[in-house]
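Example record used in the benchmark description.
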Amino acid sequence: MPQVQELRLGEGPGSEMIRTLGLLALVVLVLGCAPARESARVVRVIDGDTIVVLLDGEEERVRYIGIDTPELGTMCGVKARLVNSLLVSGKVVQLEKDVSERDRYGRLLRYVYADGVMVNARLVEEGHAKVATYPPDVKYRGLFLRLLVVGSC
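Model output (structure tokens):
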């Protein structure tokens, strides 16, 4: 009479490979959810919410997503540009896309990170920018609203 062998879940031939493949699938899923960022060097600061970067050998204007700073003709606008310069000038920054690639003026639309800090959020938190989100680029709208300082520049 043939002998019947009892197999339990997770035991037997191939079970180690199945566990390994499951773990690998989980890692790929988690990494796939992380926002893709590209690195670029800041070559010029235009104002409080626009910079020029060197990206893949080309200069590109980058408009910060989700915020708006005062115009340069105002004291608050000059201050916002100065703070932006202190945060990013000459640095290698990371650029994170939301949904839209460019605005109607041809500028890249990005969240900008310098030294591990999101510059868009820092400008709002310090009162140099107001929240200005436009669908579909609203990924960090909630964060910006929580950081908003009322009554600043």
